Amino acid sequence: MNSSTPDAELRGVRKVYDNGARGVEQVDFTVTKGEFFSMLGPSGCGKSTTLRVLAGLEEPTSGEVLIRGESMRGRPSHRRPTNMVFQRLALFPHLTVADNIAFGPRLQRKPGKRVGEIVGSMLELVGLAGFGRRYPAQLSGGQQQRVAIARALANEPAVLLLDEPLGALDLRLRVQMQQALKRIQHDSGTTFVYVTHDQVEALTMSDRMAVMNEGRIEQIGLPAELYRSPATTFTATFLGDTNLFEGDSRGDLLESPGISIKVAGGGRAVSVRPEHVAIGKDLTCANRYHGRLEDVIFQGASTRYHVRLTSGVLVISERREETGSPLAVGDDVETGWDVDAGVVLNQ
Ligand code: ADP
């Protein structure tokens, strides 16, 4: 193995379950050392299947899994250099926190002194120094999940696999744990492959991410890249909100039912993020339309405006602050955007 060998690699992985259900159709990706890689997609798109194939909990129907350059074909889960953290954690309730963390290293017959060191550094890493003598039932949900992560990392896996690990926590705790997890990942230098259906979680935590749909990868890239430059209508609509107009390309125009849009380049659709849509009077942007303000939705830091164009098409604008005089439902308004705000899509 050399330093450019990825920590994890999936080549043409396909999984058909025994009952004929299609787990994944075709999945290819590589994860480099120390990377936080996420798989994001709607329920049933094949995220868990992909993770389970990596873990060795499922054998792929075809294709191959490599960890640090080594084929995992036929190798059972407990002999792979991977560990998995689940949404429903499986701490041993009758063991203390320290003994839970020590479980793996003891199984590997590490000397007692070394086990003690590992437990100490893991408790430190997950911010639970001083909690070693407690039992799982004496900890909060977030603390228990930290122990589960410490226990998995104590085995020093090449790749840590996490299947919606924060899914059972309430929103506030989830946000705190997202930051904690990101720090733990960074400090430990361990490669993480993370599954979530929560786009904010994937966008905020990942170094790179894959958007999945119906057993396939739609797009892989940096979170900002996927958000700003989606390659498909699925990615554009799944990741954040957007105004999606589908139609026929005519030169520098996209002719969509009820709206004609100036675009840069030909394609079968254009995606315009609400935060790039202006609203007001006497706009100067290249695409301008008249309509009636149908809804104003106050969201705290920003406000959403639903504008119904004369043709019946709905355009959504999101603004950080009120510009000029306040707008009210029923007002006649202008809405629009510049050509470069539209991302042209071909599939
Ligand atoms: P996700 O994690 O994205 O929600 P899954 O990987 O769990 O998706 O599921 C992908 C597809 O495989 C779904 O259609 C699901 O019903 C099917 N599936 C998952 N696990 C099994 C199984 N053990 N047996 C049969 N079908 C399964």
Keywords:
ABC_transporter-like_CS, five-stranded antiparallel β-sheet, binds adenosine-5'-diphosphate, Rossmann fold, ABC transporter ATP-binding protein, single chain, P-loop_NTPase, six-stranded mixed β-sheet
**How many runs of DSSP E, i.e. beta strands?**
21
CATH topology of the largest domain: Rossmann fold
Query: Which CATH first-tier class of the largest domain would you pick?
Result: Alpha Beta
C-alpha-based Rg, rounded: 24 Å
Number of helices: 8
Distance between the termini: 38 Å
What small molecules does this complex bind?
A: adenosine-5'-diphosphate
CATH superfamily of the largest domain: P-loop containing nucleotide triphosphate hydrolases
Helix-strand layout with pairing:
Layout (H helix, E strand, L loop, with lengths): L7 E9 L5 E10 L4 E5 L6 H9 L6 E6 L2 E2 L10 E4 L11 H11 L4 H14 L15 H13 L5 E5 L7 H18 L2 E6 L2 H7 L2 E6 L2 E6 L1 H6 L4 H6 L4 E4 L1 E3 L2 E4 L2 E4 L6 E4 L5 E3 L6 E12 L4 E7 L4 E6 L12 E6 L4 E4 L2
Parallel strand pairs: 3-8, 3-9, 6-7, 7-8
Antiparallel strand pairs: 1-2, 1-4, 4-5, 9-10, 11-15, 12-13, 13-14, 15-21, 16-20, 17-18, 17-20, 18-19
Helix pairs in contact: 2-3, 2-4, 3-4
The structure holds adenosine-5'-diphosphate (ADP).
The site of adenosine-5'-diphosphate has 12 residues, from helix 1.
Question: How would you describe what is shown here?
Answer:
It holds the Pfam family TOBE_2. One of its GO terms (molecular function) is ATP binding. This is ABC transporter ATP-binding protein. It comes from Nonomuraea marmarensis. The structure is a single chain. This protein is an alpha+beta fold. The chain has two domains: 226 residues, P-loop containing nucleotide triphosphate hydrolases (Rossmann fold, 3-Layer(aba) Sandwich), CATH 3.40.50; 105 residues, RNA polymerase II/Efflux pump adaptor protein, barrel-sandwich hybrid domain (OB fold (Dihydrolipoamide Acetyltransferase, E2P)). It contains eight helices and 21 strands. The strands form five sheets. The protein has a six-stranded mixed sheet, with helices on both faces. Strands 16-20-17-18-19 form a five-stranded antiparallel sheet, with no helix packed on it. The model has no long low-confidence stretch (mean pLDDT 93). Bound molecules: adenosine-5'-diphosphate (ADP). Adenosine-5'-diphosphate (ADP) binds next to α1.
